[in-house]
Amino acid sequence: MIDKQDGQTHSQRKHAAILKASREEFLLNGFAGASMDRIAERACVSKRTVYNHFPSKDALFESSTLELWSRIKEAATLKFDPSLSLESQLSRIAHNSWELYRQREFLELARVVMAEFIRTPQQAAEAMEKMAQLEGGLETWLKDAVNNRALKIEDIELATTQFWGLMKAFSFWPKVFHLGEHDERRQDIIAANVEMFLARYRA
């Protein structure tokens, strides 16, 4: 039966509640210390219901990881517009991503995911491969810019890594490791990074 208010079925609402509860559990206790019993309790469902939706704790963690990657991709997704300047479009991508990195829930989940990836490198490699298959992101914008002859890039993957290397050094890693923030200088940092990037790749 579909609820008229949120358009979800009873099963879909339970599924969402379990995911939310698992994120809270992972944030509080980490992956290794997370308990399926506590996840069921947090979601206000039976343990059997949890396993009906997710066969294992690994499956729950994978869903949380994919959600994390999806949010990262979504923030960096922008349709290339040849009528607008490259600077303005890249700056918008950078600003949207910076805003995502400021969200406490996102940062906490990122810390949990990274900690587990350090423990299990194979899981990290598999997750990165799945992330690469997601639509959108900076890669798509760069490809469209190249196709429109606005940029000249031979290696899109390398250019993407370079752009995020410039950005995350100020917007993401300091927050993840509690090393301070650069939010007050955000506009200047983004402008400088975009200028450096375009100096290398503008057609």
From TrEMBL:
GO terms for molecular function: DNA-binding transcription factor activity; transcription cis-regulatory region binding. It comes from the Bacteria. Keywords: DNA-binding, Transcription, Transcription regulation. It holds the Pfam family TetR_C_7. Residues 35-54 bind DNA. InterPro entries: DNA-bd_HTH_TetR-type_CS, Homeodomain-like_sf, HTH-type_TetR-like_transc_reg, HTH_TetR, TetR_C_Proteobacteria. Residues 12-72 form the HTH tetR-type domain. PROSITE patterns: HTH_TETR_1 (PS01081), HTH_TETR_2 (PS50977). The keyword RNA-binding does not apply. This is TetR/AcrR family transcriptional regulator. It comes from Shewanella salipaludis. The lineage of its organism: Bacteria, Pseudomonadati, Pseudomonadota, Gammaproteobacteria, Alteromonadales.
